[in-house]
Amino acid sequence: MAHIHNERVMRMRVILIGGASGIAQAIASTVLDGGGEVVLAGRHRESLDAAVALLGPRASAVVIDLADESSIAQAASSVGSVDHVISLAADHANGPLGDLDGTAVRNAFDAKVIGPILLAKHFSPQVREGGSFLFFSGVAAWKPAPGLSVMATTNGAVAFLVEALAVELAPTRVNALSPGIVDSGAWDSMGSGKDTLFADTARTNPVRRVGQPSDIAAAALSLLTNTFVTGVTLHVDGGGRLS
Ligand SMILES: NC(=O)c1ccc[n+]([C@@H]2O[C@H](COP(=O)([O-])OP(=O)(O)OC[C@H]3O[C@@H](n4cnc5c(N)ncnc54)[C@H](OP(=O)(O)O)[C@@H]3O)[C@@H](O)[C@H]2O)c1
């Protein structure tokens, strides 16, 4: 079994949208370590190029803005066939309802919900036999909090989207991964608020620690390689949604 698993990883060609983010980098490194190839996608060429430079010659970059369908269609034809399409993109619209800007809310849905639907539309003809889509949800959907209604709704929609697409795109598999609080770099702009959030998370969740990108990468690899898993949302949150 281990042999089959390794063979699959070695042959893998994966595109990661939101590819310059912390979790994407950990997944990309895991695929590359196994002998695979990665294409990083996102809105900003400079951050993609910087990430590719760190990953080495089996990594490349393509610009995709999930709010722009033509960029998705162009990338699908320029990238060609892949084994897996992973979208980690998130564009946050957090804050009290009274302060929410409609455009920011729409951008959040573009990144997490509409963009993945359009990725499925344009990339499904490019996904090789045995391949899959993997979309990123998040613990906020199962643990609502004031100011996080958009995050909860977009992440929740991902869980239903993968069930629908698993049926529509069969036999291509479609899964979701829902991280808990992970030290991916995304929280660094919070300053000392990050320390408080992480200490609270580690105190209250069942595993008593925050997640690391490597925790998420290991779970993602399992969803990519287990060809009997489709239409699921895998919670990799240290049990955070239960606390
Ligand atoms: N870190 C956590 O604690 C945590 C918790 C729960 C869920 N998650 C989920 O896990 C995933 C990865 O999280 P992360 O912390 O590594 O990264 P992140 O900081 O949330 O990264 C988001 C990425 O999405 C890209 N992006 C945003 N809008 C886009 C668009 N319209 N088109 C294409 N790309 C777009 C951004 O790149 P550009 O701006 O350069 O385009 C960025 O690379 C996200 O979906 C996040 O919601 C994370």
Automatic annotation (TrEMBL):
<dbReference type="InterPro" id="IPR036291">
    <property type="entry name" value="NAD(P)-bd_dom_sf"/>
</dbReference>
<keyword id="KW-0560">Oxidoreductase</keyword>
<dbReference type="InterPro" id="IPR002347">
    <property type="entry name" value="SDR_fam"/>
</dbReference>
<dbReference type="InterPro" id="IPR051122">
    <property type="entry name" value="SDR_DHRS6-like"/>
</dbReference>
<comment type="similarity">
    <text>Belongs to the short-chain dehydrogenases/reductases (SDR) family.</text>
</comment>
<protein>
    <submittedName>
        <fullName>SDR family oxidoreductase</fullName>
    </submittedName>
</protein>
<dbReference type="Pfam" id="PF13561">
    <property type="entry name" value="adh_short_C2"/>
</dbReference>
